[in-house]
Every structure is written in structure tokens, then in C-alpha cells.
Amino acid sequence: MNLLDYNYKILVRNILKNGVSKRDRTGTGTMSLFGQSIMHDMSEGFPLLTTKRMAYKSIFAELLWFMRGQTNIKKLHEMGCHIWDGDWHKSNRINGDLGKIYGYQWRKGKDQLNSVIEHIRINPSSRRHVVSAWNFEDFDDMILPPCHYSFVFYSDERGNLSIDVNMRSGDVPLGVPFNIASYGALLTIVAKMTRHRPKFLKINITDAHIYKNQVKQIIKQIERRNKYKLPKLVLPDLDYKNMCLDEILDKLDVNSFQIENYESHDKLTFPLSN
What we know:
- This protein is α+β, with helices and mostly antiparallel strands.
- The chain has a single domain (3-260), classed as Thymidylate Synthase, Chain A, CATH 3.30.572.
- It has nine helices and eight strands.
- The strands form two sheets. A six-stranded mixed β-sheet has the order 1-2-6-5-4-3. A two-stranded antiparallel ribbon has the order 7-8.
- It is globular, with a radius of gyration of 18 Å.
């Protein structure tokens, strides 16, 4: 048994039992619960759910896209990732640019991600290792306001690095498992760059919800036995401690993220509400 799938099942059951019916912008309707969280200890393994097969290459493609400050969907397509296609088609943006979304906020107006990494290297005990994608001034030029809108790194005296992620809205069957794995990979990279070990990953969700057309499948998922151990993430052997962020990103692609010993139940398909 692994604790990630166990805690995920608790989150799902809590929403199904105590959630309230709520309207949403897509018109689908949700079961929603306020103020939920899930925590994972990275020493137990890389946080890919095993109660369903995860498309982890798409997760890593999106993360690289964010970290490079890219916002054009064509760059995602080049990596074989199509998870933003629904929002893109709905927006009628012909040129493929999705506006000043995550990657822009992380790297462009102010290079927050690179600045935080350098700050951790210099002053790891600081409480100001924050990256925020919530920028009111740019909302009109975003295809979608950020769901995971900020994250904070925490360094302890034992050489551990943890990350606290804040989400205003979390699609628990679809988006949240992606977010967990994505931030687990980000934490792993930043820890390597700053002479730390990745430790805790915590996801905080203000509106944790399950769309009503996802209920049948998510019940099927949580009824599956929790019998698989978590896999391991292996990254290329680079001089992370002495390289800058862009130097590292130039050497990484989707296939650089090697997932070892990943066993899981079969894939489950959930409808996506855009």
C-alpha cells in the first residue's frame, strides 16, 4: 500500500460524502468541498497515482512548457501534449498563443522561478521563496486564470526542500493528479539545483470538486485495491548544483524524465469540462 493513493481516496470519498452540489462556469455541475489538502512525502516515491494509469509524459511536457516561460500551444504539440486543446479551441485564438498564463507569470514579466531558485541557493532559510501566477493586470490576456496560482518552497536545517502549492480550484479526478505529479517533478529539479533533498509536497485546494459526469468513473477508481508501490523518478546526470535554470532546461526534454518501476491499474477516461 502507498499513502498517496490512500490519501487521494480519502479526499475523493470526503467530497462524495460531504460535498455540496454547485453550479460552475462550464454548466456541467459539481460536487464541491471547501478547503481540502493532500500531502505526500517524496521519500516514499514519486507521486504518480497507481489506482489508474497516468499519462506522465504529458505531465512532464506541460511542466517544461511552464518552466521555459512558453505560452504557445504549438510548443506543447511538438512534445506530443494536447491537454490544453479544449481551452484553445474554445478561445478561437488562431495563432496558438494562450496569453499570459502560467509560463509567462513564472518567467517573463519578472523571472520569479529563476529568482527563487537563486534565492534558495543563497539564503535557504528565508520564508520568501514564493512564485505567484495570480496577476490581476494580465487577466484579460489569459485564456484561463490560473487554478494553481502560487507555490512556496520551504528549506529545513537537515537539507530537505518542501513545496506548498495553492489552488483556487481543483478538478480532483483529472487535474489534481496531474498537479501532484507536476509539482513533484518541479520540487525534484529545484532540490537538485539547490543542494537539497525533495521532502514534502502539499497541495491546498479551496474549491475541491468532482464534476457530476465524473462520479461513476471516480467511484470505480477508489474501489480499486491499493496494491502497487510508487515509482521512482530518475533525471539525467547533470551538474544541477552549478548550472542556471535555462542551461538545465536546454538539456531536458520529455524523455529526460525516466519513470522506473511504475505499476498501476488500467487507464480510466474522465470527461473534461472546459
